[in-house]
Amino acid sequence: MMNLAFSYLPLILLITLMVKKNPMPSSKALPLSALVAYIVVLLVFKQDARLVNANVISGALLALTPLSIIAGAIFLFKCMEITGALAILRKSLDGVSENPVAQLMIVGWAFMFLIEGASGFGTPAAIAAPILYSLGFPALRVALFCLVLNTIPVTFGAMGTPVWFGLSLLQLPQESVREIAQQAALINTIAAPIIVILALRLVVSDTADIKKNLLFILLSTCACTLPYLGLSYFGVEFPSLLGGLIGLIITLLLAKYKIGIEAVNRPTAERSTATEQTSSNTVPLKTLIKAAFPLWGTVLLLVLTRLPELGLKALLQATEPALHISLGLLGTFHISTSLVASLTDILNTAVTWKHSVLYIPSIIPFAVTGSVTLWLFRQQAEPNTLKIAGQQTLARMRTPFFAMLGALIFVNMMMLGDSSGQNSAAVAQIGHHLAQITGENWTFFAPLLGALGSFFSGSATISNLTFAGIQTTIAEQLSLPLTTILALQSVGAAMGNMVCINNIVAVTAILGLQNRDGDILKSTSLILAVFAVVAGGMGVLLIRVGLGG
Fold first, then answer.
1. What is the pLDDT of residue 263?
2. Residue 219, class by beta-carbon neighbours within 10 Å (0-12 exposed, 13-18 middle, 19+ buried)?
3. Are 119 and 162 in contact (CB under 8 A)?
4. d(Cα 319, Cα 109) in Å, to the nearest integer?
5. Which strand (E) or helix (H) includes residue 333?
6. Torsion angle of alpha carbons 129, 134, 137, 143, nearest 10°?
7. Is the CB of residue 397 less than 8 Å from the CB of residue 74?
8. Nearest to 136 by CA among 95, 92, 97, 87
9. Cα(33)–Cα(412) distance, rounded to whole angstroms?
10. Is residue 411 classed as helix, strand or coil in its secondary structure?
11. Low-confidence ranges of the chain (pLDDT < 50)
């Protein structure tokens, strides 16, 4: 019982610090919570000191992944801003539709859906948020909107990774994996209209504006989710990618021909001071293609480097041949010709760390497309644009640095434990406790465990790897259909993206928001609760009608 209480302690502390009346910035709250978690695993759980410290080192190094992605995304945004590409895109989007609801659905829903299917890693919000901000939407509302909507496609994520890899430790039959994918897609498809409308409500002040455009919103939502659902019957790799592509094309056509759209006047107060009204929104095709290069170039590079059949994915992740350097007690450092860096045998333990420099979406595609953008606009841009973009990127990175460092160490501490019940990881103890107190009503609460995993780790894949085994045990103990419970786990892991501290820190850093992480967490938590109720209710319904297997 004492171990369970201390398992909750760092989590309760973190949430309290971030959502209290005068919230502590995540750059301070996360390191402090990580320190408390460190003390708990060392003194209360009595974990081996070398193992604990090795995980601290691993966590600190793991922070390089989200930090490099944030830096790459900010650099790309700054390149688009400096060169004027953002202004051209803003003008062209106004040409498709000046309706703010249409713009939100095009960029924040369909486009993000597509990017999630190609990349994951928090890339969708990193790309979409600056575009919406440049269109004149307030930064805080943009952050909330992107976090909430970057959930439904996350169930399949980048090329189906959260499903085929996230559930791989269970060694399920292929038929079971297909059933899990189909049920998860169905739950998300039912929940999507509700979540999209709630997300829009965060940005669009007047509910009447949403009602006037409700037909367009529903058509745009279904344009992504219905193909997504259909594709889940054929495999797990392409539901989000192709569903997003089909949905984006249909949404653009709906907006262009004003299907389901009524005129909406965006209040001046909700327009950024950077937004300039133009007398004509017509942009020459050649100019538009050039200005949109950062977007289509990013998508192209993501697809080229994520499709296994093309061979680039394996090449960018190749760990051999490599140079091996002994660092003594710290471990052995390896760097391959593909720039895959790793540290093994940290403090003479089995703890390792790996960072694929060229595969993580930082240099490729963000830095590459950003640099090419500067070159494409070299004649129009001012001198030293590369230096300016680099300096502005570094300035934006100061805030998220300590937050991410604390977040990843916090995660490692919370997930540190062995397979015994007495000394299991804090997250495992919390998961088992939640199952005990909900009992036979577990189906209704199963998505929350998946969300808890994403809250800690920032990854639907890691949530599935961490909690799928626990969900399986619970399903067996309560005689619940395994595929339905694991489908709810997958849905929960995706919806947890909206409350994940890593994602919140990333999007606020990209938009330049200061000390608003706690406010964002409170707002997204409310929508997560609604999502969980809908998902849990769907799970119960699937079992009752006999669709759960």
1. 59
2. middle
3. no
4. 36
5. strand 332-336
6. 20
7. yes
8. 87
9. 12
10. helix
11. 266-279, 419-421
How does DSSP assign 413-435, residue by residue?
HHT---SSSTT--HHHHHHHHHH
CB 117 within 8 A of CB 200: no
The one-letter code for the residue type at 507 is V
Q: What φ, ψ does residue 342 adopt, rounded to 5°?
A: -150, 155
Q: Which of 132, 174, 128 is nearest to 153 (CA)?
A: 128
Tell me the one-letter amino acid at 418: D
Instruction: Kindly report, residue by residue over 52-82, the tens digit of the pLDDT.
Output: 999 999 989 988 887 888 788 788 888 888 8
pLDDT of the residue at 119: 66
Give the relative orientation of helices 293-306 and 123-134 as an angle to the nearest 10 degrees.
170
Determine the residue type at 496. G
Q: Convert 317-349 to b/e letters by CB count within 10 Å (16 or more is b).
A: ebeeebeeeeeeeebebbbbebebbbbebbbeb
pLDDT at residue 485 in the model: 93
Q: Which residues are CB-neighbours of 230 under 8 A, at least 6 positions away?
A: none
Q: How far apart are CA 460 and CA 419, in angstroms?
A: 22
pLDDT of residue 461: 82
The pLDDT of residue 15: 81
pLDDT of residue 150: 92
Q: What does the radius of gyration of the chain's CA atoms come to, in whole angstroms?
A: 23
DSSP 377-388: TTTTSPTTHHHH
